[in-house]
TrEMBL record:
A molecular function (GO) term: S-methyl-5-thioribose-1-phosphate isomerase activity
Source species, domain of life: Bacteria
Active-site residues, record numbering mapped to chain: D243
An individual GO BP term: L-methionine salvage from methylthioadenosine
Matching PANTHER family: METHYLTHIORIBOSE-1-PHOSPHATE ISOMERASE
Catalytic activity: 5-(methylsulfanyl)-alpha-D-ribose 1-phosphate = 5-(methylsulfanyl)-D-ribulose 1-phosphate; 5-deoxy-alpha-D-ribose 1-phosphate = 5-deoxy-D-ribulose 1-phosphate
Role this protein plays: Catalyzes the interconversion of methylthioribose-1-phosphate (MTR-1-P) into methylthioribulose-1-phosphate (MTRu-1-P). Also catalyzes the interconversion of 5-deoxyribose 1-phosphate and 5-deoxyribulose 1-phosphate. Part of a bifunctional DHAP-shunt salvage pathway for SAM by-products.
Organism encoding this protein: Pseudoponticoccus marisrubri
Protein name: Methylthioribose-1-phosphate isomerase
Entry's EC annotation: 5.3.1.23
Length: 367
């Protein structure tokens, strides 16, 4: 996608500097900063501190982290140590472990002298794969938007609601939930996107920044406004991303997603989830019971980041002094509340049968 007319991915290898570079998302949408990720501690900090965020992007970043580890020491012991070091940074998003497992499985059989080159090539492959997966998700989601648009009066926009940022900043490019939006916009379909603020980190502001950069009409709303809009017929479709999806179609996404699904069900609004296949955890059945939910620092709740009157970026406390903050970062939406899953292979029911039909090779391996 583009920023001021220039194409960017969320991460890329700078061959001249021989280092991975990322967009440091902690400062968006107020300041656009690119930083190098040069050490193993840099990789861990980038993931944990949400310099990179979004399940697909976390996975791609971790793959480049494994590549760096193999450059420093290609031994089995260091490979395992790097896997453990990176895996513990974020417990909920499954792409992190998926990427680390894929790297270790591919590298383990190789002679140590070949591992560094192979690891770097694999990391680049994982990044490129993510771009294509998201493009294809967008193509399948576009057809759903076309169907909605065909039933509306001429010129009336399709009104979408999304939660958190499942845009290109959360992936290597295109995004998951935003990919159908971008492709519909490029196809000339009138859209209006309701963008949840998504407290406590206000990641909806990243979505608004993305959509604004591409000319997609949108409105930034409070997290609790979505149900009201649905009650008044102002939402045609909800579409979110996911950080981990169970084999039966339960969806773990940013905190607040479950409430949007409940409101959508009560108002007859279709609730879709954009689902890259690496985000499916075939080992988990019941998402509510089995998926670990990351509890983040309470300061993210008690303080808020913004631009000061002097033009700098700062934090202010919004709670009474001494008030504790609770900060579960994700919730689980049961599959019964999900209208459909939009994957790179097509759209399916949120069920074990639906996912197994699109991905039989993974379903069989999990049995």
């Amino acid at each position: 996608m583009k920023i001021d007319g220039t194409h960017y991915r969320s991460l890329w290898w700078n061959a001249e500097r021989d280092v991975l570079e990322i967009i440091d998302q902690r400062w968006l949408p107020h300041d656009f900063r690119v930083i190098p990720v040069a050490t193993m501690q840099d990789f861990a900090d980038a993931i944990y501190e949400m310099r990179v965020r979004g399940a697909p992007l976390i996975g791609a970043t971790a793959a480049y982290g494994m590549a760096l580890a193999m450059r420093e020491d290609p031994s089995d012991a260091n490979m395992d140590a790097a896997w453990t070091f990176l895996e513990k940074t974020r417990p909920t998003a499954i792409n992190l472990r998926w990427a680390l497992d894929r790297c270790r499985a591919a590298l383990r059989p190789l002679p140590q002298g070949e591992r560094a080159t192979a690891a770097h090539a694999l990391a680049a492959e994982i990044a490129d794969e993510d771009v294509e997966i998201n493009r294809r998700i967008g193509a399948h989601g576009l057809e759903i938007i076309r169907e909605i648009a065909a039933k509306k009066p001429a010129g009336e926009p399709v009104r979408l609601l999304t939660h958190c940022n499942a845009g290109w900043l959360a992936t290597v490019d295109w995004g998951t939930a935003t990919s159908p939006m971008y492709q519909a916009h490029e196809a000339g379909i009138p859209l209006h996107v309701w963008v949840d603020e998504t407290r406590p980190r206000n990641q909806g502001a990243l979505t608004a920044w993305e959509l604004g950069s591409h000319g997609v009409p949108h409105t930034y709303i409070t997290d609790n406004a979505g149900g009201h809009l649905m009650q008044h017929g102002l939402v045609d479709m909800v579409i979110t991303g996911t950080d981990r999806t169970t084999r039966q179609g339960d969806v773990c996404n940013k905190i607040g997603t479950y409430l949007k699904a409940l409101a959508a069900r009560d108002n007859g609004v279709p609730f879709y989830v954009a689902l890259p296949s690496p985000t499916i955890d075939w080992t988990v059945g019941d998402g509510v019971a089995e998926i670990p939910i990351e509890e983040r620092n309470a300061r993210e709740v008690t303080h808020i980041q913004g631009v000061t009157d002097e033009g700098g970026i700062g934090h202010v406390r919004v709670t009474p002094e001494g008030t504790e903050g609770g900060n579960p970062a994700f919730d689980v939406t049961p599959h019964r509340l999900v209208t459909g899953l939009i994957t790179e292979r097509g759209v399916c029911d949120a069920s074990e049968e639906g996912l197994s039909g699109l991905f039989p090779e993974h379903a069989q391996a999990a049995e």
